[in-house]
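Hi there, hope your week has been kind to you so far. Thanks so much in advance, here it is:
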Amino acid sequence: MTAEATIGVDLGGTNCRAALVTSAGQTGEVLKISTRMDHGYQALLEKLTGLCGQLRAEVRTRGLRVASVGLGAPGIINQDGLVLVSPNLPELNGHALATDLGNLLDLPTVVVNDANAICWGEALFGAGRCFSSFLTVTLGTGVGGGLVLNRGIWTGADGAAGEIGHLTVVPQGRPCGCGNRGCLEQYASATGIVLGVRERLAAGQKGLLANLPADELTSRKVAEAARRGDSLALAVFEEAGRALGQALAGVANLLNLEGVVVTGGASESFDLILPSIKEEIRQRAFEVPGQRLRIVRGELGDNAGILGAARMSLQ
């Protein structure tokens, strides 16, 4: 009997990554393409079909058979793989991505929210293995979230559950791309961290980042300055931690989860935000759920979404 593998695809606003995934959670070589949408939706479908075709060729050399395709994409995606709203890839809006790609590949294809894919990957193979119920928070350009309840992914009635990045933490705060103001992702994401530095520099504060060219200011540079003791950079990470801790205190009271798994590129600064996260939870959450909640960093890095999407395609 021929062994089976699945194709996992992580479709981001800038790049798309894909790999073969075995039943044991092992990935082959990760292939990467640009997801620029200059030529529209059909051109993206062609790119995705070509990417999956390369992986199918790899399958033949390994003596495997492709069982299905799982793709994680940004936005609200219903149970049928219809993209309802994708702020980062609006060209996907209203398209039945799962059906269209599945027809081109002639394979069972599932499309899910990218944060849910990351969450499920961590649940099966990473830092979420020890939790029955937990929240994954992805800290990248924005802030995403995925929710596991009793070892099952919870997407809500319309596929919109887990959007912790759009909880309001600062009433009348920074405007957000979603149309609200003061959303968590405007303070705790990589983008929010850079915004926090720029606001302070514009107000006249000084520090190691003051002479850095504007196009070179990144959350990684801010973290480097913070680790060198720069007070401005440290204040920005404290603000980010407080905002995330405020949101997580509400989550703790609402759901009494066992844990939170923090992932994404900005999670490299996990040590800089954890103290203020914990302090906010201590102050704001009820004692029992607040003490229960363990906050850990993800273990799978960039492969979490590929692994999770691939396994979700089998369900």
User: Anything to note?
Assistant: The mean pLDDT is 94. The longest helix spans residues 231-255. The two ends are 21 Å apart (CA to CA).
